[in-house]
């Protein structure tokens, strides 16, 4: 079973594109969702709270906006958090992958090239959109400020740097055109996987 890595900067539309593959019956693993679930595990939450000097909520959870305020301003803190969460996401992915039965699967993550993980995948897809469009989308979706979005973007490489490394690029501006690009890639991946 072929593994396809799907990535893109914040607000580029990775999840929107991932959903389009899912609509074509392709299994999708969303690393961000898994990371959030892992953070809700009491043992992990306790470790993260201790590492960053945070208090857990009454339900024993991390208050995510407090954590975001720390890690999105401090690269070292973000790396520290990733070193707690990422190995666990990887474990979950391995287990999930072995349970799938499909011609190929999609692994969606905001960071693939930045982590030197492109070689884990048969192909990589980069979803792109102009920076201003991406910022507007995230401000609208998450009700956050322009500065908040910009500071989250700092941990990610520029699109031009990632474009050089990606096998395929999906320009996500018009949803109909995005869907068409997804369909074309889907056909290509099916052909490869059935060879
Ligand atoms: N082509 C498009 N036209 C209009 N709105 C779009 C388009 N693509 C995505 N959106 C909207 O923009 C927002 C961001 O898209 P999405 O969540 O898919 O991006 P993402 O890359 O997964 O973002 P993040 O990295 O922040 O999780 C969502 O509200 C989504 O509905």
Automatic annotation (TrEMBL):
It catalyses: 3'-dephospho-CoA + ATP = ADP + CoA + H(+). It is an enzyme of class 2 (transferase). ATP binds at residues 11-16. Its EC number is 2.7.1.24. Pathway: Cofactor biosynthesis; coenzyme A biosynthesis; CoA from (R)-pantothenate: step 5/5. GO terms for biological process: coenzyme A biosynthetic process. Keywords: ATP-binding, Coenzyme A biosynthesis, Cytoplasm, Kinase, Nucleotide-binding, Transferase. InterPro entries: Depp_CoAkinase, P-loop_NTPase. Gene3D superfamilies: P-loop containing nucleotide triphosphate hydrolases. GO terms for molecular function: ATP binding; dephospho-CoA kinase activity. The keyword Cytoplasm applies. SUPFAM superfamilies: P-loop containing nucleoside triphosphate hydrolases. It holds the Pfam family CoaE. Its main location: cytoplasm. GO terms for cellular component: cytoplasm. It is found in: Cytoplasm. The keyword Nuclease does not apply. Catalyzes the phosphorylation of the 3'-hydroxyl group of dephosphocoenzyme A to form coenzyme A. PANTHER family: BIFUNCTIONAL COENZYME A SYNTHASE-RELATED, DEPHOSPHO-COA KINASE-RELATED. Belongs to the CoaE family. This is Dephospho-CoA kinase. It comes from Psychroflexus sediminis.
